[in-house]
Amino acid sequence: MQINRSSETTLGIAALITGVSFLFMIVGAIYAEFYVRAKLIIPGDISTTAQNILEHEVLFRMAIYSYVIVFISDLLVAWGLYVFLKPVNKNLSLLTAWFRLLYTALATIALFNLMDTLRHLSEQLNAQAMLSLHAFNDGWAIALLFFAVHLLLLGYLVCKSGYIPKLIGIILMIAFLYYLIDNSVKILTPGFEKFDFIILQILGIPAWIGEIALAIWLLIKGVKVKTSDLDLHQQIVD
Fold it and tell me: How far is residue 185's CA from residue 196's CA, in Å, rounded to a whole number?
């Protein structure tokens, strides 16, 4: 089979774009989710949460903007992973990308609830603002179930690739369990914080390590992967 040099270039570019997008996504998510929201939103305390958001409105808006950056990065990651993993299984790689795109679309829709939160608070409608916050959390949890399936498929493709360390694929599939269980609990039994904490402790770390490890590998090793390095049965079939 004649190797097209443009295919080799595409793999390297896809790896570079995906790795950089992963980094933007990870930094943005940490800032919005674990810094701003953790700082401003007090579960079960409507008045304090409302006061925090109003006093730090710019910070809250920056979190919303960070989420937008995260979701734009997700679109680039979905494309890049499809291109990079298409040699393994074109149809399954496409399905994997679609699950990430569906997650991104649902999460973006949920994000509008945070804008509604600000609008309600400006009108001193604290109860409605909290409903909007809950709507965001619920929409986010539903979106993450699609993300969980994406990670399962992604982990499988990584394990089957032969050119990405299998350990990364295994970690991604463990991350699937975290997102599946954690968000199913949030939807089915809201307020069951103790169980949620246990799941977070047991499976939460691989959920972050998997994508960070993949991002680093793509930036260091993935950019050097060429179509000619792959087995014949893994080469892209147009």
Answer: 7
Against a cut of 0.90, is the pTM above it? no
pLDDT band at 111 (very low <50, low <70, confident <90, very high): very high
Say if CB 67 and CB 28 are below 8 A apart: yes
**Cα–Cα nearest to 159, from 214, 220, 110, 204:** 214
Residues 25, 26, 27, 29, CA torsion sign: positive
Report the chain's C-alpha Rg in angstroms.
Answer: 20
- Ranked by mean pLDDT, the top range of 5-19, 67-81, 200-214 is 67-81
Average pLDDT over residues 52-66: 94
Burial of 176 (C-beta count, 10 Å sphere; 0-12/13-18/19+): buried
pLDDT digits (tens, 9 = 90+) for 130-186: 999 999 999 999 999 999 999 999 999 999 998 899 999 999 999 999 899 889 988
